[in-house]
Known about the structure:
The chain is 40% helix and 14% strand. It has helices spanning 4-7, 11-17, 44-51, 66-79, 90-101, 116-125, 141-149, 170-179, 192-195, 229-242, 248-258, 261-280, 299-305, 320-327, 360-365, 382-394; strands spanning 83-87, 107-111, 132-136, 154-158, 183-187, 205-209, 223-227, 285-289, 312-317, 335-336, 346-348, 372-376. Helix 6 links the parallel strand 2 (107-111) and strand 3 (132-136). Helix 2 (11-17) packs antiparallel against helix 4 (66-79), helix 4 packs parallel to helix 11 (248-258) and helix 7 packs parallel to helix 8 (170-179).
Amino acid sequence: MNTRHKEGPSPKTLAVWGGEEGVDKLGATQIPVVNSVSFDYPDLDTWLDVATGKTAGHIYGRNTNPTVEVFEDKVNLLEGGESSVSFSTGMAAITGTLFSLLEPGKRVVSIKDSYGGTNVLFTDYLPKYGVQVDLCDTDDHKGIEGQVAQGCDILYLETPTNPTVKIVDIKRLSAAAHQVGALVVVDNTFATPINQKPLPLGADIVLHSATKFLGGHADALGGVVSGSKHLLNEIFRFKEITGASLHPESAYLLIRGMKTLGLRIAQQNASAMQIAQYLESHDKIDEVFYPGLTSHRNHDIAVSQMQGFGGMLSFKLKGGYGAVKKFLPKLRYVNLAANLGSVETVAGPPATTSHVECSPEEREAMGIPEGLIRYSVGIEDVGDLICDLGNALEEL
């Protein structure tokens, strides 16, 4: 018996239709791009009601916008939150979340394997504003729980991590954080809501660099945060004042990209698994990092909290950085670029991508080898991608 109508639409359907119900499209089948900076009202009473939030509507583009609102609602429905707030970039979303919820004297516990830009916030900027930050070994769940038990205000997690594709147990660590009254923030960029939903697992806030898998076409910057309404109100206020607003043109491109999110992720999940298995058996590869492999150190956790293992993997070449320099230019079906999550395969070392802000010594301290390659699987034929990798490896 088909019970889908009782359970609600699937994530694939929400990615296409979510956030668009009841929206005035002016008869168009696609969401219009509203580029107007301001919005006109016939009288002051109506204007004031909208300005004070008594009536739905828009006042000024830095605050809200009709096109942007559809994007936010679409992501919120996929993540299962009460509200969403968008930003101009993923880093703006991360910064806006942390700075709106923290103040001098507060404490953050996080992991050492977070994205390089996030790590810089933890090591260089938050301490300047009197926020204590303690970074734990990503694989040491007991150690993380121990730090949390000492008292903290935010537990910040990223899973899978960038670029080593480690997995942390959202449910377990969220329970530990909530015991001391801490909020849990999870960066879900690599997984997407198709593969993983942090909020039902216990997270309070989930965020994305929408530039990556959500948009999927490497043509629009954006970030988005979802969670409970009272927390998102604080984050929205910070975004509204600091002005890191998502442009309506970018919102439109992200909406368009999300229409195929379910299809893209299904293809990327399947292809990444095959590629990871191929690389793991190759004699010129030291190690492959992909949570779908049974050899992955966090495979059991991934199975328990993910519906798919994602389109991101990384692998360590024998020969270190010298081998990386020789190998990457030999690839045919790949963009050597500082991006990920697009329909085209993208590859690069952490030195020029995720952790370009860090020195080799800092990357080594984080457990990121110089011989590592981050490989974002596109939607190309997987046979062609495997053949391409094989040909390049033969050159080593």
